Structures are given as C-alpha cells and as structure tokens.
Amino acid sequence: xxxxxxxxxxxxxxxxxxxxxxxxxxxxxxxxxxxxxxxxxxxxxxxxxxxxxxxxxxxxxxxxxxxxxxxxxxxxxxxxxxxxxxxxxxxxxxxxxxxxxxxxxxxxxxxxxxxxxxxxxxxxxxxxxxxxxxxxxxxxxxxxxxxxxxxxxxxxxxxxxxxxxxxxxxxxxxxxxxxxxxxxxxxxxxxxxxxxxxxxxxxxxxxxxxxxxxxxxxxxxxxxxxxxxxxxxxxxxxxxxxxxxxxxxxxxxxxxxxxxxxxxxxxxxxxxxxxxxxxxxxxxxxxxxxxxxxxxxxxxxxxxxxxxxxxxxxxxxxxxxxxxxxxxxxxxxxxxxxxxxxxxxxxxxxxxxxxxxxxxxxxxxxxxxxxxxxxxxxxxxxxxxxxxxxxxxxxxxxxxxxxxxxxxxxxxxxxxx
Length: 417
Fold this sequence. Notes:
alpha+beta; 2 domains
C-alpha cells in the first residue's frame, strides 16, 4: 500500500525546494545583471566623455594677460599689459618643454557682422596661427586651413565654420574663392571646417570665421598685441611645469613682479582632464562595490538554500556515509549543486545584461544627439573577470553547507525523523 500522506509530503517538499531555488537563483541573476548594466553605463559615460574631448590636445595650457596686482620697478598696481609677438620667440627659445605655441585673437560678434550678398549672420572672428590645428583638430570639409604663407603675408583669407557656410550659402554652392564680409572687412574663403572635439576655446569652430592672426592684428590697428596664447608640451613633459615657466618668462619680459599671481590668467587642460580620469576611476570603484554587494547578497541566498537542503537530506547523507561514501563524494555533490545553481543564474544575468546594453546602444544611443553616453558595452576582459568571480562565489556558497554535511554522523542521521 502507498502512503498517500507521505507522498503528498514529499511532493510539497520538492515544490518548496524548487520555489526556493528559483528565488535564490533570481537573486544571483539580478546581482550579475545589475553589475553588467552598471559597468556598461560607467564605461559608456567614460567613452562618451572621451569622445567629446577627442581631437583636443590634453597636454595643453592657455594663458593671457590681466592687470597687475603688485607695484614693480616704478609701475603702479593695476597696470594693464599685453602679450606681444616678441614674447612668442622668447618663450620658444627659453622653454624646451614647449612643443607647439599658437597666438590667439578674438573679435566678438556684434549684430549681423558676417555677410555674403543678402545672407547675414552673427559669428565670432578668430585670429589663429597655422599650427593651432595641432591643439584643436579640425575637420576640413572643403579647401584648406590657414597656412604659414597666409600668416607671413598677412593675407585677407578666412576659413568659415560649417554653420557659417550653411547660413551664408543656403544653396550649397562652392564657397571657395568667394569673398565674404566679416567685421566690415572682405576676406576670401579658402576653406570650410568644423571642430573634431566638443571642447572649444573662444567659441565653436562651426560658428566662427578664422583668419590669420597677423591679418587680424593689422586690421584691429593694435600693433602686435596677442589676446591669448595656447601651448602644448612635448610628450612625457609636465604641462604644469611648462605653464609655470611660461608665466615666469612673460613676467620677466614685461616688467612684472615674479610674485604677482594676478598679472596672468589661464588654465591647464591636463589638470582638467586628470580630474575626469580620477572621477571615472571613482565611478568604477563604486560600481564594483555596489554590484559586488548585490551579487554577494545572491550568493548568501545560495548558501542558505544549500544549508536547508543539507538539513532536509540529513538522513540520506548519513546513510551514504554509513554505507562507505567518501567525504570527497559528499563534497562533490554539495559543491556541484551550489556551483550549478550559481553558474546558470549568473550566466543568464550576464547574457541578458550584455544584450540589454546592446539593444539600448543600437535603438537609442546611436540615434540620440548631444548625449554623454556612447557605446555602453562591457569589455571581454571584464566579462571574463565577472565569470571567474561568479564561479568562485558559487564555490564559496557551497563551502559552508559542505562543512555542515561532513559533520553529520551516520548514527545521528539514522535517528532523524
């Protein structure tokens, strides 16, 4: 005769164990899934920021003149001074760390200051050196950029941004060789360009008219005054040291007190980018801590369910021990169950997390504009590391139940009801 009550009890136990296993597996699945999502989002944020600064020299600094803050050599405090062309030659001669040095001048827009026939627009006019493209790279859409001959001969030529081109030439005609009026002066268009990077100094390249700095100096009737200088350091040279030496030389050449910190202003791009680098490192650490905490919570659940399983199978384990089962057999049984549950749930979470990141990238990020996230995928190396951690956690989850199983004595197990 079958014991129906016993069969029902066994069925309820099996169902309860399945539910517990599913819930515990979901904890592991959710932990690795969230870890993948957070890692992908963190990497996407970093790639998006790097994409925005790609094409801009990170080993650069910019500086200009400001009223003095200390009286010196008969000059009163508050004296206004300017950087001149002669300072460029002295800087290049005196500071070996300088790789590229470019002067910059600006004429800000006032009304519709740029025109071609009946089409007008309000844009900034920049006077640059030919080597400025080594600091802020340009995408040359048509023609060319300013060259050394333009600088030397003070030619009235210009390179217009893509936005300027669309405004002045709505019919998409070839602008090369045409003359536009910028700031009341006619310039011949020799090129159309746009900036590679989202970082810009003195206005976006797309919304600017770029002319030789010597030409703009002559037109402004300001002699050889320079509004700002940009410099890059040689590879493996300190931008901070180069910046300090540049300020020192400029002060000595323009009768400014060495201790006067107000006389020059500027910013170091290397320091700014290093802040972002450390920020991304901090984000990565926080992601791993939070993600690992979520994963550990799932692993603890696996360990608990295996403890319950061992307790419910006390008689079975004891009988197997009494019949001569070796400890390694018991260890293999418990550890394999723990590892299997963790691996299946974890790998499902890993795959679904990776698939989710891919779908978000394809159907949203690649179609969106002006967004900081870009290509939020998890690298192959990170995936391998996550898988190894997952398997190790699965083994750890089965360790405590295994110890509990080995402590079961045959005589005690047989007495269990």
